[in-house]
Amino acid sequence: MAHAASIEHDEHHSAPSGFFRRWVCSTNHKDIGTMYLVFSLTMFFIGGSLAMTIRAELFEPGMQLVQPYFFNELTTMHGLVMIFGAIMPAFVGLANWMLPMMVGAPDMALPRMNNWSFWILPFAFALLLSTFFMAGGAPAGGWTMYPPLVLQGGDSIAFLIFSIHLMGISSIMGAINIIATVLNMRAPGMDLLKMPIFVWSWLITAFLLIAVMPVLAGAVTMLLTDKYFGTSFFNAAGGGDPVMYQHVFWFFGHPEVYIMILPAFGIISEIIPTFSRKPLFGYKAMVYALACIAFLSFTVWAHHMFTVGMPLGGELFFMYATMLIAIPTGVKVFNWVTTMWRGSLSFETPMLFAIAFVILFTIGGFSGVMLALVPADFQYQDTYFVVAHFHYVLVTGAAFAIMGAVYYWIPKWSGNMYSETLGKVHFWSSVISVNVLFFPQHFLGLAGMPRRIPDYNVAFANFNMISSIGGFWFGASQLLFIGMIVHCVFFSKKRATSEVWETAHGLEWTLPSPAPHHSFTVPPLIDDSKLAHGDVTH
Amino acid sequence: MRYMKSGGTGRGATGALGMLLALASGAAMANPVPWQLNMTKGVTPIAQQVYDLHMLGFWVCVGIGVVVFAAMGIAMFRFRRSRGAVAERWSHNTRLEVVWTVIPVLILIALAWPATTLLVKEVDTSNSALTIKVTGYQWKWRYDYVDYKGNAVSKVGFMSKLAFDSNKARQLDSGIDPWTVSDNGEHDYLLNVDHMLVLPTHTKIRFVITGGDVIHSWWVPELGWKIDAIPGVVNEAWATIDTAGTYRGQCAELCGQDHAFMPIVVKAVAPAQFGQWLAAQQDAANLDRAARTAQAEPAAAQPRG
Amino acid sequence: MAAMQGHQVMSPQRRPDSIEARRAAARRTAWIMGGVAAACLLAFVLHIVLR
Lengths: 538, 305, 51
Prior knowledge:
By secondary structure, chain B is an alpha+beta fold. Chain B contains 6 helices and 13 strands.
């Protein structure tokens, strides 16, 4: 292959020396990707420790550990840290690492902006987390920041809003970079419909980000002027409307949900064909389903607010639109299952996470369909049923996909194989505990337990205790994940081959492991048979 | 944890037994019980239909789940490489893809139809015999009786907040075991109030709901719905309660530090009894405003400095 | 390969081969997408102000 020549040009150790020059001044997509992933993992553990405190307080009825107001700070910050700090940066990190290698580009299109996108984040989260140590405490109005409640908070609100502005800028710049890279930097011959699904999923996600992050920035700016500059956008006494905030917020918030799941779909669409040794079933349908979900995500926002008293027509429209999303999502699930059908399956850790994703994300999707039924939602809304639903989608959905992706690509990043034993123990421990953690929450919600409460009636005691035990177990299991990463990167003796997995297709597997600091400085010649989807007739 | 008594498991078992007995005797689950798995059937015709819709959605999901997960299970068993499976190369089948696009559409229509008809019924608040105004405050509810059987009711209204014993027990490190908070053997920790909302059975009751400070949400699961109490917005909902009893709920929208501590208790009584109660309240209000205040808000009756 | 050409959505010839030219095109795309983001913000502000 012609690009073999280019690899020999690349110096394996051409990275600049010195921490400051190598990392702080980095314009290299691989180094920036690594920084995103490390940052995300750090935030995952910070958000996770907040969750552990929440589960400890909910271990049994009665108030044992924290004051109710601090509990609200915990739930609020858990949501913000996990969504904006853990899940989104993890996907951006994966995009940074993999997208240029998958499309045969030497780097991201705008490497210096890439540096800026990343380095804004630590400052944004330093601001956000610093509010815990302020007089008046951290924001406590929920991650959705509904007025008028959120405006009762102290000056932490200003810090919250500024940090969201920073995260928004970071996300928008990251999204622009991804779009420019995918549209303009592909190697000749890497046509749009030959791109790996992960690249497709990120291209579509990036458009969602560009469309909705400015809306979030606008909404929180209106909160800021309501609090400090005497406006009344959301203040009923001044002629404003608190419900309008919810409409604006969820116009951002629902596409945001898909920002956190479409790249996961992409990852699963890479992993399942590799370990089924069979091409992805219905490639084009998968791309169209992604686009269809992204489009529909702009039309369903008010299903988060069925109980605000919308007119009948509004309730019906948002119910029907929401149910419609089940169709492209169903197509994706059916296609993954059919990809496995008559394949030759093996169950390395990435495949285990992918299979768990398909099953558990589907369960989260089922409760999503139930939640779409407005009269039933009048019962489910704001209960633990909803908490269970979105944790199935985000933890066993997004987070499991990220973990699967790390197992799948870490040999390519580090040049070493991870310990399959450690990976399998981590997987089984996680997948069992996460169900112990979240499945009983369906029962709690149906029995009548509202969400965001620090204390509850004794009838809810049993399932809360089970859920908390599952929570501590799941939290502890993630230490194995750290252990796996440290072992793989620094201690593993087993070298990875270029292809890493037998029958893994795609340009990234034509590079040596670890991937050289600079790859594809000369565009590779595309050999269709080496692509995950070289056959464009399907 | 400190208050974890050795009897915790025993209590759980008693609760489970209690629920089994309740199921066996055919009694509706009026309030949450330990180990409760499913939504209440409620005490209004609408709540029953909501339950039916919920179960329809549930069984549809179970059906699809069985098919999808069975296919995955078979694939994982039959087509594993360790059993010598050889991968085939096909990667699309248009007919199949059309089939599993169209079938879900039909299933969703089958779900949307009953949901739509039920929703249309739920929003129709016309021809009600009693109007209650509900106002959410941090962290209590105010109930005002607006009209009954076409006659305006004046000055009958009161605040309803967390019962004293629950409030004492829920303080951080109170040393009080929540299991000891009970009334007539019912564990009503955090689900009891000082003044219940008294309502008649077999009467179409219209609720008008608003918020006094931040957004709250008024939810009694037995009535089959919740609706937000929003400042500057007046929302409407209705219920016709079939069975007399005491039904408990909670605020369902995050409203600040004591969000968990503003329960809702509805006491449904026979219409005749309700008429007497309302008349007594009306008389008291008309004759002696101070007496009414004292009854509804004992604390307010204290001499002010 | 030749038979495949008809199915390709964007043929290689339509995109420049040299990395400099591709980078220049990428910068144009980035400015356009930045403009789209700004337009989204503007549309939102107008929506609120003219409501």
